Amino acid sequence: MIRLIGIDPGLRFMGWGVVDVEGNRLRHVADGVLATQSGDDVPRRLCDLHEGLVTLIRRYQPSEAAVEETYVNRNGSSTLKLGYARGVALLVPALAGLSVHEYGAMAVKRAVVGTGAATKEQVSMMVRRLLPGAEIKRADASDALAIAICHAHHRASAQHVAMGVRMA
């Protein structure tokens, strides 16, 4: 069994989700959102995200992390702030000694739903179906679980390739 943490970076809300993987079976462990105060300055908010992720990694002891890649939008300031949060999402697990993997939004949607054009609602519905019993309260947490599921699928495929297993 291996434990994975998926992280959906955001400066205001950073989603996270933890799953256990055994063979082709997935089990929901926990999920949630790290929230920062929009009135705080950016360095304080980054510290809050850092502290929150450190606490989560200590509590759940994942073996690997997966982080969603950031897309660039029209507002340069927002993109930059999201990049800061993404830096924290990449740095904290790396400092904890975890291997960190990155996936674009389309790759996550393809892995979970089967198409890169899936809506957020479709992704959320499939996450709930793949992780029965998960009571996901926020879209950010659902997205983080989808990222963890995506990594579980890619990880399994990479292991099959390494072992020389032929896929149908």
From TrEMBL:
Free-text remark on how the cofactor is bound: Binds 2 Mg(2+) ion per subunit.
Provenance organism: Bombella pollinis
Documented EC number(s): 3.1.21.10
Essential cofactor(s): Mg(2+)
Gene3D superfamilies, alphabetized: Ribonuclease H-like superfamily/Ribonuclease H
Species classification: Bacteria, Pseudomonadati, Pseudomonadota, Alphaproteobacteria, Acetobacterales
Its biological purpose: The RuvA-RuvB-RuvC complex processes Holliday junction (HJ) DNA during genetic recombination and DNA repair. Endonuclease that resolves HJ intermediates. Cleaves cruciform DNA by making single-stranded nicks across the HJ at symmetrical positions within the homologous arms, yielding a 5'-phosphate and a 3'-hydroxyl group; requires a central core of homology in the junction. The consensus cleavage sequence is 5'-(A/T)TT(C/G)-3'. Cleavage occurs on the 3'-side of the TT dinucleotide at the point of strand exchange.
Keyword terms, alphabetized: Cytoplasm, DNA damage, DNA recombination, DNA repair, DNA-binding, Endonuclease, Hydrolase, Magnesium, Metal-binding, Nuclease
Family: Belongs to the RuvC family.
Positions contributing to Mg(2+) 2 binding: 68
InterPro entries, per database record: RNaseH-like_sf, RNaseH_sf, X-over_junc_endoDNase_Mg_BS, X-over_junc_endoDNase_RuvC
Self-association state and partner proteins as the record states: Homodimer which binds Holliday junction (HJ) DNA. The HJ becomes 2-fold symmetrical on binding to RuvC with unstacked arms; it has a different conformation from HJ DNA in complex with RuvA. In the full resolvosome a probable DNA-RuvA(4)-RuvB(12)-RuvC(2) complex forms which resolves the HJ.
Substrates-to-products reaction catalysed: Endonucleolytic cleavage at a junction such as a reciprocal single-stranded crossover between two homologous DNA duplexes (Holliday junction)
Gene: ruvC
Protein name, per record: Crossover junction endodeoxyribonuclease RuvC
Residues at the catalytic site: 8, 68, 140
Location relative to the cell: Cytoplasm
The keyword DNA repair is annotated on this UniProt entry: yes
Keyword Transcription regulation listed: no
Binding site for Mg(2+) 1: 8, 140
Top-level taxon of origin: Bacteria
